Protein 1
Amino acid sequence: MFSILQSLWGVFQHTWRRRVTVQYPDRKRTLPPRWRGRIILSRDPDGAERCVACQLCAVACPVGCIALEAAEDEHGRRYPEFFRINFSRCIFCGYCEEACPTCAIQLTPDNEMGEYHRAGLVYEKNDLLIAGQGKHHGYNFYRVAGLQIGGKDKGAAENERPPSDVRSLMP
Amino acid sequence: MNPTLHQVLVVFGVLFGLFGVGALLTWAERRLLALWQDRYGPNRVGPFGLLQVVADMIKIFSKEDWIPPFADKPVFVLAPLVIMVATLLSFAVVPFAPNIEIANLNIGLLFFLAMSSLSVYGVALAGWASNSKYALLGSLRAVGQMLSYEVFMGLALMGVVAQAGSFGLRDIVLAQRGLWFGVPQFIGLGIFFIAGLAETRRIPFDLPEAESELVAGFHTEYSGMKFAMFFLGEYIAITLIAALTVTLFLGGWLGPWLPPLVWFLLKTFCLVGLFILIRATLPRLRYDQLLELGWKRMLPLALLNLIVTGAVILWRKGV
């Protein structure tokens, strides 16, 4: 009996407690930068697309919501012909970001992407590409990779030695 | 003022006032529960979310009024009406203020007890006519609970009746001018309040509804306006129990400075707030605990209270 009165009083004390509700549309919480929200495609410091259309994100995606097709430009650089994410299927697991070898695909803290029509949730490359570099600054895949492309020979990448002459005995 | 006109005004004032109170209590309960659970509750529609009531009303009016094909149609339709009417009729004997009262029955208290017994029929018929297991289980529980709690609800009031020497609620209020009956009859007050909780099927005695086990208990099959009638009936019943507790134990309209009606409403709504606080605090009882509490604790306590009250009254008179 006494404990009942005690708990009644305890609950009544909550009258003066701060309310935990955040009044959402009026007030928004700042989400941590690693929040897994809307997916974007970032660009390298030179402003070119980072994505090399390796399909790893599409393979890693557990719900199969990423579709892309590879293409190659005149310099031998690979890029996605189209890149499509169906956000009505996406579960925002972030596996695509983990799988990406070039830091191209990234998840952002934006989560307000409601639509009145389902077709609006299918994002094309134009919708996904952003102007900046996202979370990883200064990374350019073609600058560090040993791949030979137009304007960059083998051995010309950063921290890369010139290719050794296999016919010579000199070190 | 013309007495007939006054009476008509009082009748309609009480009727529409009660509908208003019943509707607003749905909002008040949600806001208060939210307050005590550190939330906000409905606060977007209108000032403080007050227009939520209107929004709910529009919604419930536009809902399909579905009568299941397996239900007993006439009884199914009648059951919510029985609850509403029985609860509303009880207010006929409540004296709100010295000159605001619908009927000054000299057996007002018995009339209230009779009416609250009638509302058991509403619940029982609703469960029966729904012809579904959950509804029937709910109404079975309701009948068992309300019948057993009505016994000592009446007994708890007899102490007040013995002290006031009358069954009329106006006389009982007037008899409290010296001291509220809540003080000498504090056991009666407690027992009546607990019985009132059970009568209105509120948490912790909400076994007839018991969302987590019985879907919605006796009103599982109801929808639309009929469902709303059950709820309005419940909220008006809460107001009724609060109003009667005020009338019988807490001095009714008596009080200094403020006008009588204000005192009455103030006390009543404080008690309604207590109803909601109890809902915010206590968990639901098990069914055997409920009946044990009723028959093994409350009934002997009520009888003891009555015997002691009678003895003290006789001793004071010097018989």
Note: The interface with chain A takes residues 34-40, 277-278, 280-282 of chain B (CB under 8 Å).
Protein 2
Amino acid sequence: MRVTSPVIGVLALQGDVREHLAALAAAGAEARQVRRPEELAAVDGLVIPGGESTTISKLADAFGLFEPLRARVRAGMPTYGSCAGMIMLADKILDPRSGQETVGGIDMIVRRNAFGRQNESFEAAVEVAGVPGGPVDGVFIRAPWVESLGAGARSVAAFEGRTVAVRQGNLLATAFHPELTGDHRVHAMFADMVRAAV
Amino acid sequence: MSTSPSNAQTPETGTARVKRGMAEQLKGGVIMDVVTPEQARIAEDAGAVAVMALERVPADIRKDGGVARMSDPDMIDGIIEAVSIPVMAKSRIGHLVEAQVLQALGVDYIDESEVLTPADEVNHTDKWSFTTPFVCGATNLGEALRRISEGAAMIRSKGEAGTGNVVEAVRHLRQIKGDIARLRGLDNHELYAAAKELRASHELVKEVAELGKLPVVLFSAGGVATPADAALMRQLGAEGVFVGSGIFKSGDPARRAAAIVKATTFFDDPKVVADVSRGLGEAMVGINIDVLPEGERYASRGW
């Protein structure tokens, strides 16, 4: 029985790793970077951060992380992906670049950069089911959306009719970036998912 | 500037959080100069987080001379079409219309760059008035803070573009990091005089002193040619690197580009840097800075 705070890794190949580490620490977790299979083996839960999904995918492939990631996710490790992380947790990408793989786990198809280029990137209030205290500030940066959801997955937030956050078992994905806002409620919800699983 | 949470029911574009947040997504990555859609695809396949669309890489701007301007819109369109990663492009310092054109073309970031010939010797562009975020070069903290006060959402240390020589990149990054470290040692009373010395606002200087870093992402640029160069800049505190001429002026661009991406992520693991440095073919030739006449040093453009 673990009595200390859960250890949550942040996949640190590329992206806004520091912001996720800070948000997890603020949510009471012990947060650390994960770049290698042996580091992945030592965490109770994992965040796949925002970043460039093609870059993260290529680095995960080059450094032998895909199989260990898939094995842990299949075995029920709580995992949260924001933006690029959402893409990495999708079973399917609508418009993948050649050779772009995902870890998968969430029965959904995502469309990359669905909300447009940087000029169309925006902030808006978003209600997330399971996050108490009113809407979160949704920061959408060249953000994906969920094109279609399979039977096992559940939409937990929508914006303008598009699914922008999803839960499936111990997996959570958001198209937006709570880590950029200083509001740690989404990370607190994820830390609770990890605590419940260990 | 406002960085308070938005409670808007309608989406709000171009906020400081959205502009700066975009740069946060690039961290730990490599942004590569490209001059054709084909090069852009090579960069994307190698794992670049973004490409910088240019008509000529800095090494060729140096060689050719003349006035260096914003790239041709058709060429920028072609690169935007070719890749799914963000596309940046350069405007001349103070050339607000080039910046407006780049925004209209839909580029994801504008680099108000000393590599192009300055259009205004007094004023930089008012970057707050754009939806598209800007990155600007700096050689020291004061310069970085002046660009941030004009609205820059990302800073890169300047280095000396098109030389393949990392010495100026190191000098400028060390200068910025050293300036920040010195602020950390000052008390509240001293920060006013420090702001005056840095020719920057007291508010920004105080913010940097408290954070121990810039309020925006800091990359390094200007002279990176090898995986070890990229890892060096990361160890010195750059959050990512721009690579200009170093990739497509080398013997095997695809391989070198992928190697620099890997070394940027595993910058603190010499075994990885060693492995990726094998068999890359010839690096770009490079120029010694001390043989560059003062007038050909890009880093002294902008103020």
Note: Chain B touches chain A through 44 residues (CB under 8 Å).
Protein 3
Amino acid sequence: MALLQISEPGQSTAPHQHRLAAGIDLGTTNSLVASVRSGQADTLPDAEGQHLLPSVVRYLPTGEHVVGFEAKAAAAQDPLNSIASVKRLMGRGVEDVKTLGAQLPYSFVPSDSGMPRIHTAGGDVSPVEVSAEILNVLRARAELSLGGELTGVVITVPAYFDDAQRQATKDAAKLANLNVLRLLNEPTAAAVAYGLDQKNDGVIAVYDLGGGTFDVSILRLNKGVFEVLATAGDTALGGDDMDRVIAGWIMQQAGIGDDADHKQMRRLLRDACAAKEALTDADSVALNIELMNGSHWEGALTRAQLNELIDPLIAQTLSPCRRALRDAGLKVADISEVVMVGGSTRVPRVRERVGEFFKCSPRVDIDPDKVVAIGAAIQADVLAGNKPDDEMLLLDVIPLSLGIETMGGLIEKIIPRNTTIPVSRAQDFTTFKDGQTAMALHVCQGERELVSDSRSLARFELRGIPPMVAGAARIRVTFQVDADGLLGVTAREETSGVQASIQVKPSYGLSDTEVETMLRDSMTHAHDDMGARRLREQQVEADRVIEALQSALATDGELFLADDERARIEAAAAELDSLRRGDDHRAIKRAIEAVEKASADYVARRMDANIRKAMAGHAVEDFK
Amino acid sequence: MSVDLKQNYFALFGLPVSYTVDRATLDQRYRELQRLVHPDKFASAADQERRIAMQQAAQVNEGYRVLKDDLARARYVLELRGHRFDDERNTHQDPEFLMEQMELREALGDVREAADPFASLSGILEQVDARLAALSAELDAQLVADAAIPEPALMAVQRMQFFRKLAQEAQELEADLEDEAG
């Protein structure tokens, strides 16, 4: 109960124990894991000394799979079973996949959940499961090099990820058996990595061009507080697109037709990527392309030609930069620094154009591939409780407006983009028929006016509205976006006080039941036991609750509690303590809830007193 | 003494109820409050505390949003003084103001045809910003006394709303023009 643990700086409550935590950058092309060791955040290498893990999973007919370099190496020969760039499919629906399908050479099979599955020799897999395999490898790597089980992780996501994409990422973590302390926006993570290094206050821009996503965030730094003022981006724009335009140019030059097969395409993309990378240092690169008939085409790509090819893509990133500035209410002159993030910012032309745009030379001193994972590791270390006196605080925003469908397929915005999270907004609805007891809500995300132009997030069905005449019911629906950027909805009929129940049908994600089923399946494979896992989770939570409660009671139980209240809380805690030793995870859960219920007022009083104490220090006559 | 989520934002930030707010103090209080209540400070806490922290942090964010914005803050102060806004009904505005509005709208409509659309747009935006600043100064003077709601303050708020809308449209046009120019 950390709420009960608010302490003065330097006055940590419990004897300190270092908790193992890691930051994970789950990238389109490559993924990384980093951790803070001896005060230093570093990415962790595998046994061969490789830090980057290619985000490729290859499914074999035997039911086994391989992840990383081995899978990447096989991708050209076995494109249909080697799943790369799966991040582009996270939280996407069957319709989106049709658009992306031309770029991603997989066989898709529709599924019940609206989330497409990919057909492989090892069976059909969802993008969430593919991501979970990548996370599994990184978790194992971290646990091996840190020498113990991870308490929690921070996983980064593009700032411009919508709710469905974030939820899918969280589901993947759950499948990989990871405790997610926070989903952190990639540009914010990069700012942390730079900010803590520099201790500079001011307004910075983070330009993050990865393999498949682009983000730009404008942040104000002030004594350890990183306040995101605005963010913008494109979740389907990155280095992959550069490779594609280069491959297209090669095809044109070499006379390769549009009928090139998957293998040929994969090889072309690989060669295009290699040429792009070589042109970071060289002015010209020789090309030797194997054609389908076995003959070879030879040619060259110059940097000038490359620049011409990718200029339109770079221009596409500058429009979000302008929008972010405008939303932040700032001008280019207000930006003191620009930080470059993502492998694609190695391309000299990108640095040049971004420098011209922001009128300053971009910062590249931290490896653009590693900077996000390093920032995530720093945040994970703080969230795990290893730095109780740390001043760092990250205040992020929601990247896209949230709204609900109204008459005529229009969207009414409830929470506009770039609102600081967490945020909570309520909206009142009423019934339009006599005796109506249910109501449907369609939640969308995006900036356009029409539902058809926006991302459908979920359909909520409210039930249990007391029957009344039309228009008499007042149903207050509260939309809450948490610090991970994830939406939650609650509803209540105000005249009767009835809590309406909500059934959520995510438009593209997996339902909780589906995640649970997958988890159970994966457990069976791992010879683990679901019940044992649940029990362990509840016991940890019980310990947390008891420890925090005792320390709080010792500090100010006298001050805030009447004797009978205290007796009730202590009785509930004693009951929990005895059940905690048993093996019934449901009973422990109920006992935890009982303690929480008994201590709810106490917790609230302490919180309130803390705020008052802090603000009272400012001596204001109006403060009552 | 329980946490009152409907607690007035000025009290939450330890500030007197007033239209005039020192921005630096407000910013500093905001950071101080978030350091106390942000869910990240409760990352390893029990679910209940995390929920409460989230509600508190959302409340602090909402308060900050209202208090740092001239228009939202003016409306909030007037509402605290008992005024109920009816956005359907407009206060009577004098002809000069209405004329200026029309002229600005026309100018905005002509931007695309202007020799230098960007220069013409920034001219409009400067004019609107100057008007907004003047209205804010007017509210500083109007909303000092307690309790009473001066009619000119209501009029100023409504004008502010007009200019805000205009500024927003001008910015959207600027965004479109910039994107078209590449």
Note: Chain B has a mean pLDDT of 86.
